[in-house]
Design brief:
About 35% of the residues lie in helices and about 20% in strands. Strands 1-5-4-3-2 form a five-stranded mixed β-sheet. A hairpin with a 3-residue loop joins strand 4 and strand 5. It starts with 8 loop residues before the first strand and ends with a helix.
């Protein structure tokens, strides 16, 4: 939900939410939930980008290349109470504009993802999110 006083609105691709729910259900524990994970990462990204108080190092967050001038980032998502190592955390791609952060997709080395395939999914979903943002 968008807070009118906030400079940022979070809008996520529906498939991203399904991927996150599946990952948390499979690799989290009883205390972790996908909504808690999304709320946590949204708060951290809001602070990082809009309050100009860096929360992430380049090991955890970086700008992705090859998205035709669109500002797309990757992030290693922290799953609360999961006991996963940094290399096991899922990697997610998100699109950032001045007013929106839109998660596109995620996957993890635990699930043997290939970054080229994940980037291709991100590029495809980016086009879908851009269409949604035209009416948002």
């Amino acid at each position: 939900m968008h807070d009118p006083s906030s400079p940022c609105c979070f809008l996520h691709h529906p498939s991203f939410i399904k991927e996150l729910e599946e990952f948390v259900g499979k690799h989290g524990n009883q205390d972790a939930s996908s909504s808690e994970t999304v709320d946590n990462i949204q708060n951290l990204l809001f602070t990082h980008f809009y309050k100009k108080s860096p929360m992430f190092t380049p090991k955890h967050l970086g700008q992705a290349q090859g998205f035709s001038g669109f500002t797309v980032f990757w992030i290693h998502m922290v799953i609360p109470n999961s006991n996963l190592s940094r290399t096991q955390l899922p990697k997610a791609y998100f699109y950032k504009t001045d007013n929106h952060i839109c998660f596109l997709c995620l996957d993890s080395h635990i699930q043997n993802y290939k970054d080229a395939k994940l980037r291709a999914i991100a590029a495809e979903r980016l086009q879908e999110i851009i269409e949604v943002l035209k009416t948002h």
